[in-house]
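Workshop exercise sheet. Pairs work together: one partner reads the sequence aloud, the other fills in the structure field after running the prediction. Swap roles for the next sheet.
Pair: D.N. / O.F.
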Amino acid sequence: MSHRIIEVLVPIPINKTFFYKLPNDIKQIPKAGTRVIVDFNNRNLVGVVWGSRLNENKERDIKNIKEILDDEPVILDEQLELADWASRYYHYPLGEVISHFLTPSLRKGKKASFQEQAFWKLSNKGEFIDIKALRRAPKQEEALMFFRGRSKELPQRIILASGISGQTLKSLENKEILVKTIKTLDPKVDPLNLQKERKHKLTKEQEKAVNKICTKKEGVVLLNGITGSGKTEVYLEVIKKIIAEKKQALILIPEIGLAPQAEGRFKKRFGQRVASFHSAKNEKERLDIWLSMKKGLVDVVIGTRSSIFLPMSNLGIIVVDEEHDQSFKQMDRFRYSARELALYRAKINKIPIVLASATPSLESLKNALDNKYTHLRLTKRPGVAKLPQYLPVDLRGKELKDGLSNELIKGIDVELKNNNQVLIFLNRRGYASSLVCRFCGWVSSCQRCDAHMTVHRNPSKLHCHHCEASQSMPTNCPSCLGKKFESIGLGTERIESFLKKEFVSYPVIRIDSDSTRGKDSFIGYLETIKKGESAILLGTQMIAKGHHFPEVTLVGIVDADSGIFSADFRGSEKVAQIITQVAGRAGRGKKTGRVIIQTYCPEHPHIERLIDGNYETFAKDLLEERKAANSPPYSYQARIQTESIKSSISRDFLDEIWKLVESSSFPTAKIKKIGPLPSFMEKKQGVFRWEINLFSDTRKNLHKILDAINFYLRESPRRNKVRWTIDVDPYSTL
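Structure field:
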């Protein structure tokens, strides 16, 4: 007897598919992309069908599929192709990769349908029952009074908001006084009406860019425009034409904080067939958006990196906004780059993709200069807006007040008195970098990481930003029992404290990951800034990218030197991007802008280039340096990192793996190897980390050796003592 065998992907860290039989009572063979429940090691797991076949052999040891969850595939064919490529490119198990294409509720096996909501109304018995019958249950009596006189059924969320508990509703249902109905709520979206849209005047550069992108049926466009040059307006016009062709657009943004501004701008242009997708949405909201995209009920979705996995019924264009941003790179487990996945997805769909940035990554810039990408430049701000003037402040020999020079303090005072807004940038949160004993020199170090614990004042604590460990502020030195401490270094909290004392008449709005933990708190800050009243905005890179603050006329960069002397070869590129981006928040409206850059190294060539305000020239210089060193993007990099409770175990495991690779037939001479070496931060989150970095002139050779390494990693008898990761195209040294 032949068996219908189903090939299933299971979300476990094993890079293989598993086979299950289809029970005889199930006639329809599930298609690839359909979710099923399978028994895996005596656990019920949600798997995804990868394929099927008939098998004439009697394979008695193959288990039956327990349940088919979907009538039709929830993962589209082009997504399956993308998942297969991503698994091979990033050397990560396909079963775990495919789970990223599902929302959290779908991974749990819940129904792929829009939100269900409970509605309640009085039963026939409830209409006529004497209220006195409920006097011993005053809450039920109150609920009955609430329903009397309301002929329509009411949604449960309205009832709960009125103070009636779910337990009370359940009790009245048990007494047959209330009747509950469950309804599926399909989203109601307004039809698109482009005829009513007002005309938007484009500059000649913008018009040229729109026309160029619209003539491309597929391929990559690097939209390289200075800050405030209207890149968003360009792809809004392009998307207008895409939607007119009944196609969808996917916009990737680097930060959740940019979503409200972007969603509002798109809805203003295109109506309600626009949605945003990110981790701040709850499970039901994410599922509704996921289904809306799959069913073609939404034309535009704006989302963070996980949005690249959304099903799109008729995808017409992908835009990666701020394409250089490191937030597009997942830093743990499945270490994918949303930008690279977007490029491949556009290739599969044969559609155009726009990479937009004022400070493009060196990889993208090199591809544009090599004519692999279409390179479009926007060199002017529209209207009367001009680029800001850069004013370097040499800090050598100067006395600072909590990190601020007199020049910057005076500049803030002048702008505030002129009813303008000021933005102060420091990419370090907390009050101070560390706490030091003034008697013996003890430093507040983290026990689980090779790092100092950051001083926080509100609330008062020591906190490690690498492992999230925290402890109360000591009253006595743990080493000498002294009582006097010094807070060393600067953080946004410290500058906030100084600014509030120095400028008591003006609000200081601090925006960092500590101050925006509350739901919608970031949106609240943006609404306050939009009012245009005089204020000091203070923050980390959260406010450096993508935001339009037309009343900001002065940007103060407190520490321009961080990153220039970093051990990370990408350090100069990163700091240049951040400084250029934050400087670009100034002078975006009718008022002129200034940028005060505080530095101890004004003559450093990188600082001089940044002060000139020409990022592309700066980036070309960096490309020459990278070319001389044969480092990315002139070579291809991967990092193999191991973690264990002992440093020697991590080191020896890497040594063993590399010896096995050398003993194989692979020509290792084609690969440049650095390591094994301790990671830049060897101890992190209580484990010790070692790494090998590999460089190759071709992707092909790099992936060949990674395949071999991956095999030996998984087959090693020591694998249970060590955790490891393979990071292709690593972005951070930490």
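Discussion prompt: The longest helix spans residues 647-663. What would you look at next?
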